[in-house]
Amino acid sequence: QEKSCRLSAALLGEDCEISHDQLYELLKYAALGKCHNAAQPSWCRIYHQSHLAGVVVVVLHGTSQVHFYRFYLQFKHLRKVFRHRFTLTPSTNFLTSLYGEGPELRPQNTAPGLTSTSSECVTKSSDLQCDPIIRRYGEQKRGLTNYTLTLEEQKKNYYPIKGSPECKDYISTECDQQRTDSSPLFGLDCEMCLTAKGNEVTRVSLVDAQGQCLLNELVKPERPVMNYRTRFSGITKKMLLPVKTRLSDVQTRLKKMLPHDAVLVGHSLNSDLQALEMIHPSVIDTSLLFARDEGRRFKLKFLAKAVLGKEIQCEQRLGHDPTEDARAALELAQFFIEQGPAKVAELNLEMLLTAEKLAEVSQNKAVLQPQGCGVQKELNESPRLSKPCFLDCLQVTGQKPLLLGRQGLDSSSLCQSNLSTSNKQILQRALEDVPLSTFSIIQFSLGPEYIASHLHAGLYEKVRSKLTDMLTIYAGPFEEGFCLKTVKKEFGRCGPIQSLTVVTETFQPYVRVQYEVLEATQLAVESLNGAEVAGSCIKVQRPVTAAMLDCDVLIKELELDVENEGVLYVAGLKKSLTETDLQEEFSHLKDLEMLFLPKDLQSGKHRNCCFLKFQKSQSAVDALEAINGWTVKGRELRSRNALASGHLWRWIWQMNHSNGKQGKHIFYEQMEQLSDCEQDLRKKMKKLDHHIKKLYRSLQNNTLCVVLFPGVNSTHGSQPGLGLMGIKNDAGRSAC
């Protein structure tokens, strides 16, 4: 059973602002693990990183945190799937600060970042003892049975195993005869397409020990094909239309063709056998045979060229040829057995790979996919940074990053050509290529007409104005000469008050209360409307404006937001209480994971409220029922579900304490133009959310997905970005 990767992050309140260096830490560790000195990021933790299926970064060029909250209701998928969010500090050179860069590349025996002892040993041809091949097999030649995978190795590498619950419906080849060093070798390779079932076989090739093709068969999948992966599989819809052969037919043919002592050879053969739904007891896996350190593997294309001197998987050809790949894997195994481990180690494959990759990087070839985004161009032209670029590290370890984006985005030369490329075309390309890449960066864009700085300022002012209205309530009427201190005390029990003023324009006095947090305003509306305060039965309501007509819908959606799942807001606390005091008070609550006590970001003083985060949603429901009416240090507590527990809390506080004068001037000056754009932007945001939903659904389980609204630096001011992240699991929602 494959382990599920998990992501944890303490992103509440002040801890929600993440720098580009911290984001770089996360992506580097996710992509490289403990290789290249990559360590767990300081602000979050990935569990079982070695089981990550891949990393996908989606960049929404030209957007900031403002866009997410101005068009919050349009982002249905993002707010329901990604539990972890953070404010991202804006950068003048976003891509460079995201990817990082290393020193100038130059020919050398070790690649930048390859600093482990084992890598240094590989470059010394006079001493082969450090080579992982020698450490695993020794120097002496041995027969083929010494290179077949043991049962434990098969389990570790996810081979179908007889008797395993996951393989109960799989077909056995029934090749159960004892193997000897003279047992026949057969090369096997399959091409797969993506269907609703997962990876299904669409072509099977089998070659014998002389390289003769015994089987080269197209196969009709059981389920409708979602992605033919033509660029890699070579399979098209037209090719499969007349095909009648089914998986069961191929299984029967393979059983008849293979002798009882057959040894199957393939490159990552576990994937082929899983797709064939067949169990075979004796295999040689060339991706493991040519051993490397730290779980890395050489690609078949590289091994064929370096060991056999053969070019396979040529880019000019549409898709891979499974017969060619099966034959290459077979010949690699035969070479290894005939020449022995010492001869293979003397080839110095690590150094050959490093030299090849460095040559590609220096020519700007390695990271540029055909028709893709020229992201590397910006990296090459940017000033060198002190930290190493993990994209370079990925290349020299044999992993080829996928970079796709919109053409002609801005003056930073982000992309090189083909100005007609649309977000829809990028999505189609991503759906084909992302499942085949371990690290992908996909960039969508709003288009140049929607990223003008004055439009950002106008959107910011609209969000600020709406949040101010959502934080404000009007209460009354009160009797003449009412006690303002009593009113302030009663409304203060709902949470920290930003300002309280008396409204005198009405026949009877009212009060206007502006809170610092959304939860306090909502508590006041829910608990004090119709209550008796200062001797009067009062009505509590928010301002009625055109922008506030959907306020109730917005509040409901914020409450249902996955980021706020299992989080409670608690008000009515004494400001003298410390976090330690509260931990003690709430210690008996089941599954309490974290407590956050907000502070005034200027004075550092605690507010009279806190947030409680629970490991399970039901535990939060039970705690909510228990907390309401509690008395702590003589104060009765009030509680409700959180609305803005994470990064939004900090942003609201900052907006509350900014005068917004420049934004207002720009906003009113550009009102007409902004109104024209907003309807189009609303549609674009909805479409972007749909694109990300479609891409996310195509990802394998255990894929880390990070969605970035990069933020804006302009003459009209700086707008912070927003990051959303999670690891996809079986349920489709990101794993926390």
From TrEMBL:
It holds the Pfam family RNase_T. GO terms for molecular function: exonuclease activity; RNA binding. InterPro entries: Nucleotide-bd_a/b_plait_sf, RBD_domain_sf, REX1-like_exo, REXO1/3/4-like, Ribonucl_H, RNaseH-like_sf, RNaseH_sf, RRM_dom. The keyword Transmembrane does not apply. Gene3D superfamilies: 3.30.70.330, Ribonuclease H-like superfamily/Ribonuclease H. GO terms for cellular component: nucleus. Transmembrane segments: none annotated. Residues 471-545, 566-644 form the RRM domain. Keywords: Exonuclease, Hydrolase, Nuclease, RNA-binding. It comes from the Eukaryota. This is REXO5 exonuclease.
